[in-house]
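To whoever is on call:

I kicked off a structure prediction for a single chain this morning and the downstream step that reads the tokens threw a length-mismatch warning. I double-checked the sequence; it's 331 residues and nothing unusual in it as far as I can see. Pasting both halves so you can look.
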Amino acid sequence: MLAPIAWRTPPRHYGPWELVTSLLTEALVARGVDVTLFATLDSLTAATLDGVVPAAYSEDPSIDAKVWEFRHLAHLFEQAGRFDLIHNQADFPAHAFSRLTDTPIVTTIHGFSSDRILPMYAPYQDRVHYVAISDADRHPTLRYAATIHHGIPLGDFPFDPHGSDDLLFFGRIHPDKGAKEAIAVARAVGRPLDLYGIVQDAGYHDREVAPADDGVSIRYHGAVGGAARTTALGHARALLHLVNFDEPFGLSVIEAMACGTPVIATRRGSMPELIEHGVTGFLVDSVAGAIDAVARVGEIDRSACRRAVAERFSVDRMADAYIRLYRTIIA
């Protein structure tokens, strides 16, 4: 299992690719699969941990991302013959090594960002088995082995049957994620809004979030992990996920629903695959639509949100789907 090295596996706070890598790795080990996890050396796993990268480059400024990424890749592929299969969770750089080994390779594409990355995907689809994380994120010119939605361990997300009167934003502080729109909705409906997430665009934060943060009606808390994270996800009337891009998946969406919190999301990307309109939340096309949806949140049964995650987005379902794929490829 090849993890990214931007963050530790699993991440302390932010790091969705590393989080999914960790969840899948631990679920495979629990099923008796012999897994070697190639990740930063401070990573935590029940698998066999192997690696050369001392720490995550997003956490340790002494780690040069380009230099250590290729040390990381070389360390795995120099011993590729030891493994029945390599599962790459670290994007396209691994494809450069794919024709230097006979070991089958699976790449989970954690979001197809643009056509600019096609030159490192299209020429290697005869050697690498691509997995999409949603049907919406499939590129029309690529062949895919499967679409496998992410899964989460339901037991890690306590169900809150009541929530609160407050609204929630949970994601990167970046124009793509719609913090500005969430603030506009909260002000329009007169409900407090709590915002959580790393600042990925400092200028956007300074323009749109910081001036609105009065500590009372609009409250920005920064990144959060552990019990504080799950409490925030469950203790809300609704999650506002008013994205301005075609979201490939959206872990915070299923995490909020697992806690019982309905989601109001822009009808883009994978959102129609994750949210059942009128049952687990609402799909909207504008800020005005989101404002109307807040008034309807009381129609949503919070237990239905949790049931949907249990049925469709469990870590067990994800692990079983990957094991079926591995067996097909190896056979």
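Update from on-call: the warning came from a stale cache, not from the record. Cleared it. Sanity check on the structure: The chain has a mean pLDDT of 97.
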